[in-house]
Write a structure and sequence with these properties.
4 domains; seven-stranded antiparallel beta sheet; alpha+beta; 13 helices; five-stranded antiparallel beta sheet; 552 residues; ibrinogen binding protein from staphylococcus aureus fold
Length: 552
């Protein structure tokens, strides 16, 4: 991967410059793998430590992070030991992707204490370990027992041991000079098997530059010492602390490593976290849709059975009329239907008397007759819930992390899902506001809560409401009265189309009207509405046009 020991060396220089000497303000755990530490009076940004098996790194970040309402146990323990602690120093273990952050604070008795947060960015084995001054493990983000196939135990009470690496340190100039003069380096693998802390990307860049140079040592040291953060997006996307000359593609350079790492990792992390959360909700919603569709089919069959209820009433009446023809033990009554004049056969229970057989048919008739209102109520409810879950299905496809959390909270409130952990305060809706080229604000609801709040609480009666025609989608409100310019109408209609089930269609019909003409539907959630006095615009959804809008 691109985040090797050399990159970590430069990153740690940046972190030391910004955070050493400052006290911890708060600790957050952003997911299963990521911890964020903010500092009091810090110069800029926060410290992110990611033990992700795919995106492991340690960095200063200036991106806003979505923090969970309920901190996990590991986060609570870090807060206990690191709250208001001072970051004294940071060291790197050789040129490996292992760093030790030393924190000091006074305990409850006023005595000074020291804790060490050790970060290991070792790919799939990445980890965060909190130890005391004697390197006894207090807790680890990922536990490893003595029988897990690992050489090192990571569990409370175990002795922490740094990973071993016998390769050459590329900053040891004497060893470097000897290696380059006595060994052949024909492939990137030769570089990474000889030197510690270097990635295949470094090997590729070194060999590429060496092809146009005469001195291997000078070429190597210049590349090793170069600080020119760059990101190349082409056949493959890669970043490095040095200029990447061997990869073709669109190149971007950055003033510092924090900006580079934010540009490369932040969107990937956000998409990965969103994908996991969305996957869970998608599976749940799909199950609910399948259940309602199945229920609709069963209810339709039950309703069809009621079509024969008059036949049961007729049978009961005929049994009473012709009971004199029934002998004990008869299984069938053969008689003439006095209404049609046709001969009929009526099955009988041989153990029952004629009156009891008639009562059996009358009871079946009453049961089916009385079930009709209940079946129709169930059909209406199943149809309403089916529409609701299909709406959620559409919303999940365009929701970001905070929107997904709100959708989950909504499902918990409606008792479709169980609450996780302790019951806390209701999460505040995070509305998305776009501003078009004319400076007009456009609100977009990403879930039912937001749709409800935008339309019924935030919007004024003279604002203009947009929604795709006859399909699930977001409520979009332009915070301006009619008449609207074509620019604003097209921007709002485009947002409504992109946040709907028609996002991949063309010539999507979008209705718009004043908010005063939008009304709730009795018996349904407030996000379901009916509207009048509307006009319609047909638009091709354009994602690039949305990217040009200012988003808050």
């Amino acid at each position: 991967m691109s985040f090797d020991g050399l990159t970590m060396r430069r990153v740690l220089d940046d972190i030391k410059h910004h955070f050493v000497g400052h006290r911890v303000k708060q600790v957050y755990q952003l997911g299963d793998h990521d911890v964020l530490i903010t500092f009091r009076q810090g110069r800029s940004g926060s410290l992110l430590l990611s033990a992700s098996p795919h995106h492991a790194r340690l960095q200063r970040t200036e991106e806003r992070q979505e923090t969970p309402m309920q901190p996990p146990m590991f986060c609570m323990l870090l807060r206990k030991h690191l709250d208001n602690a001072k970051l004294e120093r940071i060291t790197q273990h050789g040129l490996d992707r292992v760093a030790t952050l030393v924190f000091t604070k006074t305990d409850e008795l006023g005595d000074p204490t020291e804790k060490r947060l050790i970060y290991e960015g070792l790919g799939k084995d990445a980890n965060l370990i909190l130890t005391n001054t004697h390197h006894t493990v207090i807790e680890a983000l990922k536990h490893r027992g003595p029988f897990d196939g690992s050489e090192r135990t990571m569990a409370p009470g175990a002795d922490y041991r740094f990973p071993s690496d016998n390769r050459i340190d590329p900053f040891d100039d004497d060893a470097l000079k000897e290696a380059l003069s006595t060994r052949a380096f024909n492939a990137p693998r030769d570089i990474i098997t000889t030197f510690t802390g270097l990635s295949p990307l470094f090997g590729e860049e070194y060999l590429h530059r060496l092809a146009d140079a005469d001195d291997p040592l000078t070429t190597f040291t210049q590349l090793r010492d170069e600080i020119n953060p760059s990101l190349v997006e082409g056949d493959k996307t890669a970043f490095a602390v040095y200029d990447l000359t061997h990869i073709r593609g669109e190149k971007r350079t950055f003033d510092d490593l924090a900006s580079l790492l934010d540009a490369y990792f932040h969107e990937r992390d956000r998409k990965a976290k969103r994908k996991q959360k969305a996957k869970d909700l998608e599976k749940f919603v799909k199950r609910q849709i399948d259940k309602r569709q199945s229920k609709q089919e069963h209810l339709a069959q039950d309703l069809k059975k009621t079509e024969t209820m008059d036949k049961d009433r007729k049978r009961g009446t005929l049994i009473l009329t012709y009971q004199h023809l029934i002998d004990p033990g008869d299984r069938i009554l053969r008689c003439v239907d006095y209404e049609t004049g046709n001969s009929v056969e009526i099955p009988l229970e041989p153990t029952k008397k004629p009156a009891e057989n008639a009562e059996m048919y009358f009871k079946r008739y009453k049961k089916r007759k009385n079930s009709i209102p209940h079946i129709k109520r169930q059909q209406r409810r199943a149809l309403r819930e089916l529409a609701y879950f299909r709406l959620l299905e559409t919303q999940i496809e365009t929701a970001d992390l905070s929107d997904l959390e709100e959708i989950r909270d909504e499902l918990v409130e409606l008792k479709y899902l169980r609450a996780r952990g302790k019951k806390g305060m209701r999460r505040k809706e995070k509305m998305t506001t776009y501003t078009d080229d004319e400076g007009v604000d456009i609100l977009v609801g990403k879930n039912n809560r937001q749709n409800e709040k935008i339309t019924h609480d935030i919007a004024r009666h003279h604002h203009v409401w947009f929604h795709v025609q006859n399909a699930p989608g977001s409520h979009v409100v332009v915070k301006k009265p009619l008449p609207l310019s074509e620019t604003t109408i097209r921007a709002a209609a485009n947002l409504a189309a992109l946040h709907s089930a028609y996002r991949d269609a063309s010539s999507v019909p979008v209705d718009y009207t004043e908010v005063r003409y939008v009304k709730t539907i009795p018996g349904k959630e407030r996000c379901f509405v009916r509207y009048t006095n509307h006009k319609t615009i047909y638009i091709d959804p354009d994602r690039e046009a949305v990217k040009k809008l200012t988003r808050n």
